[in-house]
Every structure is written in C-alpha cells, then in structure tokens.
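Section 3.1 - Work completed
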Amino acid sequence: MTVEEDVVARGTGAILKGLDMLAGTVQDMRLANGETAALGWLQITLGECRYPVDNPAGEAYAWIVVHDKPGEAPIFQGWMVASSPALDALDHPRFDVWVTHCTTD
C-alpha cells in the first residue's frame, strides 16, 4: 500500500474565522505567520500555514495555538485542516475557530 503525500509550500499567513456562539457573531482574522489576534478574551497565534503546491486554494493546514489566559498553558495547540475542521478542533464552550485558507502575499 502506497500513501501519497501532498507537496506543500509555506504561506505567508492564513485567514481564520472565529465564532462567538453566545453573541452569534463571526469574525474574520487575517494573520501573518507568528502573529496573534484576539477573539473575545482568547489569544490565537498562527504558527504557520501550509498549502498544497498544486492546489493553493483547495486546502490549508495551519498550526494554531490558543490561550484562554495569558501565562497559562494553551487550551489548544495543533494543526487545523481547512477541509476537515472537526478533525482537530478547538473545544471551547463559547468560541469556535477554524482556518479557511493560507495567504501567499
């Protein structure tokens, strides 16, 4: 059995969406690699975003770190996959975060 792996390139950042389930609002977040944004009181840091070389708009793999409180251990740390947001999802009672695509500019 042979497993094919996507040949990926590193994007300059990513577009994330954040949902506040209590307020019913969605926030677009454009982050550069290494940048942090706030969603409510959560601090969301994009480590990097990778995308398939042959299909940059079709998939995105983003390394995300989410802190609930500064100085404490992250409540989420891992790769989020645009086409499968439930594969490795943030488990939070109020907020949801997912990646839509990488940026290349």
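Second construct:
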Amino acid sequence: MTAFDYTYYGTKVKAGSLIEFLEYMFDINAKAAEAGKLQTPVCIWGLHGIGKTEIVRDLARRKDYGFSYIAPAQFEEMGDLLGMPTIDGDATVFRAPDWVPREEKPGILLIDDVNRADDRILRGIMQLLQNYELVSWSLPKGWQIVLTANPDGGDYSVTPLDDAMLTRMMHITLTFDEVEWARWAQASGIDSRGIDFVLTYPEMMQGQRTTPRTLVQFFQAIAPIEDLNQNLGLVKILGDSCLDAETVAAFIAFVQESLHKLPEPAELLAASSDTEFRKQLEPLIQEKPVRVDLLSTLAFRLFTFGTDPNGQAQAGQVENMKRFLLLDAIPADVRLGLARNLATTKLSVWQELLEDPDLMDLLLG
C-alpha cells in the first residue's frame, strides 16, 4: 500500500475502545439534553473498509436503538437535506425527507462518509451538528448524531472540513486490530479458514483493495467450497475480484502449506481422549522448526471459541483446554498467552480452571 501522510483527528483506538467512547458520549449527551444544553456529535475517522459504519450499526442493534443512515455524498441539492416545500393552506411548509427519524426513543443518526459530500451540503449540515435541527425539522428526543470520515492528505477524494465544522464535533480515529476482528468474525459466523488466515498474517489486512470489508466479502464467497486445495483456480479468481494480488498469493500459499495443519477449535476441544487430542495436534507440534505463528493462531481461536457468549463450555472442553495449556510440545509463551487471555474473562469455568495447581505453576513460572 502506498504511504500517504494522512490527517486524522482524535485518539487512535481499537474497536472496543471506540464503543466505550461512543457509549460514554451518548450518556453525556442524554444528560445535556435533559438539562436543556447542546449535545455534541461524534465523528469517527479511519481508512476505508475497517468497520466504522458496522460498529455504529451493531451498537444501535445491540442497545435496541432506532437507527437512521444517510450518505450525504449522494445528496444533489439542499432539498435532500432540508426536505421539499409544499403548500398547506395559506402557508408554505417543508416536508422532511423520508430518512428523518420521527420516533421519540433513543436512536442514532449516522452520517456516513461526511467529507465526501459537496461543500454546499456540508455547510447545510453545520446547523444540524450545532442544534440537532434544521429550519425544516428537528431530531426527536433521545437521538444521537454520529459521523464517519476518511482522512485528508492522501488518495481519498474528500472535501476538507474547515475549523468551524471540525469544532462542532468530538473526534476519534478507528484503527484495525486483528484480535478484536477475529472475535467479531467468529461471533458473526465468518469462515474459520479466513479467521485463521487473518490471525496468522495480520499484516495482510490493509491494502489498496484489501480491507477487513473486502476480506469478509472474499471469505463469504469461498465459504461453500469445502476443499480449497482442490479449487485453487476458483479461489484465485474470487480473490482477484476483490483483493490485492499480494493478499491472494499469501492466502493461496496459506491454503497449500498451513491450513491443513490447523485443527478446528470445536473439534480439538471435543476430543474424547488424550490420544485423540494429540493426534489432532500432530501436524503442528511435530513440525520443525516450530510454527509459533500457527500455534498462536490456534491458541487465540481456542480462547474465542471457549469464551463465545453464545456458547457454554462443557466439562470435556475444559479438560482439553487444560491439556493444551500443559502440553510441553507447545512453546511456553503461546500457552502463557492463552492462560492470560482466559484470566481476563469473567466466566467462572475458566477462572476455576486457572486455579488448578499445575496451571498456577505455568502462570507464575
């Protein structure tokens, strides 16, 4: 990816910190509105395709908020923002656009890719950011305004925001993190082979065409293909259709050389005996030199599977997690990293496991 001197605003954070910031600002804004004070919109900056829009949409869905979406780059005239004038008796009144929310309940108005809008539209939006209303309509009580924007100073076709616009908002910048993405991907049912690839080669996640968004498109496209090795031609065509050539080459190499060595977390944790457990791990632990990258990928997949809020760890899974943590053939750093991740969860089953005397030696040793 060509290096550009991008201009961002606000602290650079991962997805989890962004969500915490949004929830905090929503609470502050709600209190300000109750006190009759002005609210402050939030603008999320970041490269294309890293999940800015989806994070806001998912947050609204999770909190059961109303949600309204606009992309002002599609607005051709001020009527798209203000609405259209109509005659009502002796008066001329404006009819608000269809996208304007009307329900009085907590909600989010997402103004997506705001700095791709024409300068005329941006000037019209300024009053909305200041007062949460325009001359023709007002946001219902309880609604928040969130904007997204791509950075200035690079190859993006954007309209620079002046100080009058910038100072009407709070700013934060989203950066990609493969660990948080993997959590989301597993919970969202993304093809596990794709998750393994991203965790093994996180540097491949951001390019000119390769982004978290286009990788999800690719992983969804290959999901019906049971044997990727037998269909590499089709895999390459699908990859070339949405990803950078370097990413496609790396994925094909991963399929040919590494994918078959990684057991599925569900199958490994379901092993009915120590013999079956070790048999699934043999392709990895017998390889010389030790593939720490693949073992680290597997360790994190075990963690996300075992702590999936939609699942519940069974006794056999706990025993197999303990086997993994105590297996000397796996580098201690990998096992310690998994143990520390498990220690961060609030699930009692893993807290109890880590109190095992043998595992305490690993954590303290």
